[in-house]
Amino acid sequence: MGRKLDPTRKEKRGPGRKARKQRGAEVELARFLPPGKAAKRRLGAGSGPAGRRPLGGGRGGGGGEREPAGQTAHGRSGFSDGNSKWLAPAKAKKTQPKGNHVELSSDGEVEEGSWEMEEEEDGSSEEMVDDYGASSSEEEELLPIEKAALKQKPDREGLSEDDSEEEDEEEEEAEEASKQKMGQKEEEGPDLQLNLDIDEQFKLPTSEEIEKEDILFISEPPDLHVIHQRIQGNMEVLQDFGVKREEGRSRQEYLALLRRDMAAYYSYSDFLLTKLMDIFPLPELIKFLEANEVPRPVTIRTNTLKTRRRDLAQALINRGVNLDPLGKWSKTGLVIYDSTVPIGATPEYLAGHYMLQGASSLLPVMALAPQENERILDMCCAPGGKTSYIAQLMKNTGMILANDSSAERLRSVVGNLHRLGVTNAVVSNCDGRQFPKVLGGFDRVLLDAPCSGTGVISKDPAVKTNKDEQDILRCAHLQKELILSAIDSVNAASETGGYIVYCTCSVMVEENEWVVDYALKKRNVRLVATGLDFGKEGFTRFKDRRFHPSLKSTRRFYPHTHNMDGFFIAKFKKFSNAIPQAQKAAPSTVPDTIISEPLPKKKKLEGSKADEEQKPPQPALKKKHSLQARKRPFKS
Amino acid sequence: SEKLLKLAASVPRESLVAPGTCFGKFTKSQKFRLSVTALDFLAPYAKHKVWVKPGSEQSFLYGNHVLKSGLGRITESTAQYQGVVVYSMADVPLGFGVAAKSTQECRKVDPLAIVVFHQADVGEYVRNEDTLT
Question: Where are stretches of biased composition, namely Gly residues (chain A) (predicted)?
Fold first, then answer.
């Protein structure tokens, strides 16, 4: 049977490019039919806003019978409602530019251009409900395929926006219009913000006024808003000091006031703030402080020993968790936006498919790059996140010695290792400084040293106030001892390894660059690239100190730049097992020219002397070194 | 593995916490009690399995026994009091149990009767972290 050309019959048109190209006979016909007739046809066709019309039946009167609305008043057109006054057919011309509209209704309705125009003009016929109960509002046109088309039709956008401005009740309109408007609004946003023009000069309060404030502070709490404004004003002055300064006031006074205000506003101790002001330039400092007020997003690491990231993501999404892959740099991380179930208690968690871990904790293990069948030492392993990551990268081969000096935290290590199915780990409870004595000759060592925690203030706000000079120096001292033990526990001659990774969750230079520099001076190690291509480089000089230039290969991560906890990572390669003796004249390294002996003997030798070496006082250390040097030639 | 044991031997005894994975413990009367940490190793070898419906997964993980209403599938010819491994519908092993009824009886019994006695489940990792060894 041939297909009869019946302009009164609407055809169902599918979505897609091809459907758009061939607009259908009705539209083509409209160009040739006289306008009145064309309108009548269209009216007849469109007044029953369903898709397909039943076949057969003539035009005109037949249409009226089909019409649920009722009898036809006009013999010709076939519909009868009283809309004829305002529902005027559009001119045939208008179908040309708006012919595109036909493409947009992809649920099968041929909403012809004329209808579009009429709807928009009226504004009140938006909610046309078709036979299927769905409304043919503009929302239907906005299917994802059509959105691309949308962007090419600015005039239509303008029109429909006008519409939605007229109607505010329709939720659908609002939603869909807001989608369109968002693009525009984003452009307007920055303009609005630029209106904040601070004309007034920032006036530095005199010392008397500051004292008055102190007195007031005792009686009533400080006005945070005022302080915040003052901080911002102060910052502006300091950034353009030559121009904006007040005569007769030194930079120091401005800085002092800024410090006081920031300490009050963000609740930091003055000491910590001074330290931070040395590390960060001022605008970054504000960002850092703000970032510390907000917690970092929850991240998890897929346990590849038991599952794949794809499968895990699917399973968690089915439970109602909103997540995303962490980034290009990680193949196992997922970041959790929100979830209806507690992440730490899903059956997948209990089955050991993933581990709750900060994003920054994935980095040192990636830098360490453990290979299969190696012997690895993790000196401060609790609660076991990094250890289990090492194990999964090694695919449960080789051996990991997971050590921590705190017995209670070790229980969580054991629990986690069992849960995640790690079989190649031995857990021990020694002090890290005992290490080469207990067991040495490892291929790689990971040292996640205990630190002051200034990088994880968002997790533990108490750090803001309870750290002082003593704490930092004590941490630094412990870290120096630990890093020497770590270096001594590595076998430089191992075929695949000889690497030490030192990391802390702190941003203080005393705990990071200083310790690394110390290690470079004291042992036969050199810094190598961490393999992480993002992150800020470590400092090679800081205030009055100068560090070795290879410190550029270390990496620093900050909460405000990378949205992960503050971190510092350094990777060493040990190139000789000998321990350099420090000369009495100057503390420069003079590596021994002794070739490394067969390892077990060597390790025992060094091991027995190791604990003596660790004793702090420097002159004593030097003596022991020279003693050792004298003894060795005999023993070899 | 043995290599692991030899390496672990060099750690002083007071300090050694866990060489490898713990399967279970010996009780005072010389009985061996299997713990949930052995699940990964035993699950693939299990001859008799019980699948639990999603609704009663959580209940099992809290330590409750499995009722007939929560039973999804069960391997044929499971004898009564047979040791079984409990799985979720997604084939994720959840723990160990003992079949309270044989497969035939399971079909006949009413929905609130216990069909699997709970012995060990993965939820213990969170509940009894300290006693896991």
Answer: 45-63
DSSP-assigned letters across all residues of A246-311: PTT--HHHHHHHHHHHHHHHHT--HHHHHHHHHHS-HHHHHHHHHHHHSPPPEEEEE-TTT--HHH
Note whether A423 contacts B: Cβ–Cβ < 8 A: yes
For residue A136, the one-letter residue type is S
Which residue is closest to B123 within chain A, CA to CA? A350
Is residue B85 a part of any domain in this protein? yes
- Residues A537-573 pLDDT 10s: 888 888 888 888 888 899 999 988 888 888 999 999 9
Q: Where are the domains of chain A?
A: 207-293, 358-574
DSSP A453: -
Number of folded domains that form chain B: 1
Report yes or no on B26 lying in a domain.
no
Distance from CA of B73 to the nearest CA of A (A): 19
Q: Is residue B45 part of a domain?
A: yes
Distance in Å, alpha carbon of B7 to nearest chain A alpha carbon: 8
Are B132 and A399 inside 8 Å of each other by CB?
no
ipTM: 0.79
Are B18 and A426 within 8 A, CB to CB? yes
Interface of B with A in 64-103 (CB under 8 A): 88, 90, 92-94
Residue A316, CA distances (Å) to A325, A341, A342, A416 in order: 13, 9, 11, 20
Contact of A397 with chain B, judged by CB distance below 8 Å, is answered with no
Question: Is the CATH number of domain A358-574 3.40.50.150?
Answer: yes
- Closest chain A residue to B122 measured between Cα atoms? A350
pLDDT one-digit tens code per residue, A356-375: 988 888 999 999 888 888 88
Range of the structural domain that residue B53 is part of:
36-128
